[in-house]
């Protein structure tokens, strides 16, 4: 029998925690980048980042005030019970976290332009589904992206004559034009596919894997490394005030394209990249992948 | 030594402050973002708070009501200042605000406003919302609450609010515009080099 209440409670507690404590991979990368800085301004900014994380933990408050419009990326095992109830549970979990964390009221209804103060609304939280064969577990990745790091999001369909070279140009233009406001050092997610909606979803999924995990194709992995090195050479620094680095990483996700099109989308995560990864089994035992040893 | 300004701030107080300096602020801060700017400039509605010599913070906080009925700042951090670029010069002129705090840079018109009416724009490291919230000692008022929690004008008393990195000074110098020229120059070289390596369509 599926324990709806228990499931909702686990997800709600996990969402609440994810807004307060950064995942292990992000913390570790920030530590690396902080230690590489030499300039006074950059060092001051990084000190604020780390002091803030400590205060958030100590006072149990959301570390960034912009807790986003929550997105869930769900990998559901085909044998996990009651898949039909998960949407309701996730909505209820967000409703609870909004009151308890507390989360900022960010969900504004389209056309009516009303904010009900619950973070629940039309298709909010937004839920992305994938079915996993031969599994009876469910993996849930909540993601809180603030307005600042959602603003650079863009997508375009290129003609094959433009080539991957145009992708490089597009990435650099996006980061220089928009990256400063998105709270660097950024995690850059790039989706490459045959149409913009495929590329867009992939660009976001690219942000939800551990930093530095590489694309399975060696050419893709090399392109990630080259873009990462090149973007760091720009030296945007933390908050764009200039420094030694620009990004925490570059991740590419791909889907086979149409012969006549090559679509690319870009999404960025801010330094305060609040994503989580939790796996729950049918008996409501859970394992937290993103924050080892975290209590919820 | 920490450079600390207090509200009301005068043009004289801003004379020796240059882009890249770090300052702190004591006194009163009012959160103010998209819709409040739009209401004042586009709709000509009177702002329900006097900002002469004051400080606005481009921010949408998380606020909680305490048991005694007073509000408490839970988390507060800057939002993208560029969204207010369209209105800021006129806003400075109309209100007499002296310190604008946000994140990222602002463009030419705001820099003009800062030069003409003697004001500065600063950034406070974003994503550090608990650090900033503990510098907010007390919320002393809330106006235009019909706009919802993020857009309400929250009037607060702050102590050593900062670090505020000066991005536009009262002479109109603009730190981010200066940086952007450097980033763009470096960009060309990088795009050229990497493009050579990704000629996968042959």
UniProtKB/TrEMBL annotation, chain B:
One of its GO terms (molecular function) is L(+)-tartrate dehydratase activity. This is L(+)-tartrate dehydratase subunit beta. The keyword Lyase applies. It comes from Marispirochaeta aestuarii. InterPro entries: Fe-S_hydro-lyase_TtdB-typ_cat (IPR004647), Fe-S_hydroAse_TtdB_cat_sf (IPR036660). The keyword Lyase applies. Heterotetramer of two alpha and two beta subunits. Keywords: Lyase. It comes from the Bacteria. Belongs to the class-I fumarase family. Residues 5-178 form the Fe-S hydro-lyase tartrate dehydratase beta-type catalytic domain. Signal peptide: none annotated. It is an enzyme of class 4 (lyase). It catalyses: (2R,3R)-tartrate = oxaloacetate + H2O. Its EC number is 4.2.1.32.
């Amino acid at each position: 029998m599926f324990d709806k209440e228990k499931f909702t409670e686990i997800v709600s507690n996990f969402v609440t925690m994810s807004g307060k404590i950064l995942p292990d991979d992000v913390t570790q990368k920030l530590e690396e980048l902080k230690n590489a800085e030499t300039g006074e301004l950059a060092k001051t900014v990084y000190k604020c980042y780390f002091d803030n994380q400590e205060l958030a933990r100590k006072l149990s408050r959301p570390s960034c005030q912009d807790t986003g419009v929550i997105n869930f990326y769900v990998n559901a095992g085909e044998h996990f019970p009651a898949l039909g109830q998960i949407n309701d549970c996730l909505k209820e979990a967000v409703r609870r976290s909004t009151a308890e964390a507390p989360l900022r009221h960010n969900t504004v209804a389209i056309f009516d332009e009303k904010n009900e103060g619950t973070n629940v609304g039309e298709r909010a939280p937004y839920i992305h589904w994938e079915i996993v064969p031969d599994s009876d577990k469910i993996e849930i990745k909540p993601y809180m992206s603030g307005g600042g790091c959602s603003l650079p999001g863009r997508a375009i369909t290129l003609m094959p004559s433009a080539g991957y070279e145009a992708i490089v140009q597009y990435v650099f233009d996006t980061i220089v034009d928009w990256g400063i406001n998105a709270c660097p050092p950024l995690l850059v997610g790039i989706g490459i596919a045959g149409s913009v909606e495929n590329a867009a979803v992939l660009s976001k999924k690219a942000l939800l894997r551990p930093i530095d995990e590489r694309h399975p194709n060696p050419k893709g992995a090399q392109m990630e490394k080259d873009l990462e090195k090149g973007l760091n050479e720009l030296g945007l620094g933390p908050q764009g005030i200039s420094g030694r680095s620009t990004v925490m990483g570059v991740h590419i996700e791909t889907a086979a394209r149409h012969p006549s099109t090559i679509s690319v989308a870009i999404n960025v995560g801010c330094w305060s990249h609040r994503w989580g990864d939790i796996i729950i089994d049918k008996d409501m035992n859970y394992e937290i992948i993103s924050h080892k040893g975290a209590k919820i | 030594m920490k450079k600390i300004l207090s509200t009301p701030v005068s043009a004289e107080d801003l004379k020796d402050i240059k882009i890249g300096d770090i300052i702190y602020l004591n006194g009163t801060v009012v959160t103010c973002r998209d819709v409040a700017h739009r209401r004042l400039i586009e709709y000509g509605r009177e702002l329900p708070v006097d900002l002469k010599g004051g400080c606005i913070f481009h921010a949408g906080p998380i606020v909680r009501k305490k048991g005694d009925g007073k509000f408490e700042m839970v988390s507060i951090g800057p939002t993208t200042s560029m969204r207010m670029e369209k209105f800021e010069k006129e806003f400075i002129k109309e209100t007499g605000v002296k310190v604008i705090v946000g994140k990222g840079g602002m463009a030419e018109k705001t820099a003009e406003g800062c030069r003409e009416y003697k004001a500065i724009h600063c950034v406070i490291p974003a994503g550090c919302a608990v650090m900033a919230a503990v510098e907010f000692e007390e919320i002393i008022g809330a106006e235009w609450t019909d706009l919802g929690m993020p857009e309400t004008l929250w009037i607060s008393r702050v102590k050593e609010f900062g670090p505020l990195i000066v991005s536009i000074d009262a002479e109109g110098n603009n730190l981010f515009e200066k940086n952007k020229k450097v980033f763009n120059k470096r960009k060309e070289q990088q795009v050229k080099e990497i493009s050579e390596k990704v000629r996968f369509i042959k």
